[in-house]
Design brief:
Elements: H1 2-41, H2 45-49, H3 54-57, H4 62-75, E1 78-89, E2 92-101, E3 107-108, E4 112-117, E5 120-124, H5 128-131, H6 140-158, H7 169-178, E6 180-181, E7 191-192
Antiparallel strand pairs: 1-2, 2-3, 2-4, 4-5, 6-7
Length: 199
């Protein structure tokens, strides 16, 4: 009888310990997700970088990450507001946020994956901040705007003359796209270099 009692007590203690461990991990996941939102709101991009998985960090240094995020915020500023964390198991969870800022309506973010790595919850999301080459993807939109402005200026200047810039729009766009570069020396923004535009 005593052995049964001891066994039941030990089993109950083990269950309580396991539940406590799970709760502790969930609490850490919530704290991590909240920490990401706070870092974003405070523009503490150095601390924000530390919340991401090593695989993403390997794609871009902390210094370049900070530059990229600052540049992207200049283009389209927004904030993250923490909503909730949903734990799938002891190694996987998902964070949910509301985007707020310049947009008139608040938008819910898709689920952001969180992974338990080396005793800490890390984010496996927002990968564009690590792998995108430029703020304007491929700089195509940037080239399109430049050619549009050019054609509007030329049309205004030439008036009723026979030349029509718009008829050569696609060719100008092709040439302009070739002359655009994007790297960290320009804060990851599109810049025109005008090289070999005749080829």
């Amino acid at each position: 009888m005593k052995l049964k009692t001891i066994f039941l007590c030990l089993s109950l203690l083990l269950v309580l310990l396991l539940l406590s461990a799970c709760t502790s991990k969930e609490e850490k996941a919530v704290q991590t997700a909240q920490g990401v939102a706070i870092a974003w709101q405070n523009e503490d991009y150095s601390s924000l970088y530390d919340y991401f998985i090593p695989e993403l960090q390997a794609e871009r240094s902390k210094e370049d990450f900070i530059t990229f995020v600052i540049s992207s915020q200049e283009e389209s500023s927004f904030n993250l507001v923490y909503d909730k964390v949903v734990a799938q198991d002891n190694k996987l969870a998902y964070a949910y946020y509301t985007f707020s800022g310049v947009l008139a309506t608040q938008l819910k973010s898709p689920a952001i994956k969180m992974e338990y790595v080396g005793g800490e919850w890390k984010f496996n999301g927002f990968s564009g901040y690590f792998i995108d080459d430029c703020i304007t993807e491929g700089c195509y939109d940037y080239a399109y705007d430049l050619v549009t402005d050019m054609c509007e200026d030329m049309s205004s200047f030439r008036g009723s003359q026979t030349y029509d810039c718009w008829s050569d729009f696609d060719e100008y766009l092709r040439l302009m796209s070739k002359d655009i570069i994007c790297d960290k020396t320009t804060n990851f923004k599109c810049e025109v270099i005008f090289e070999d535009s005749n080829t």
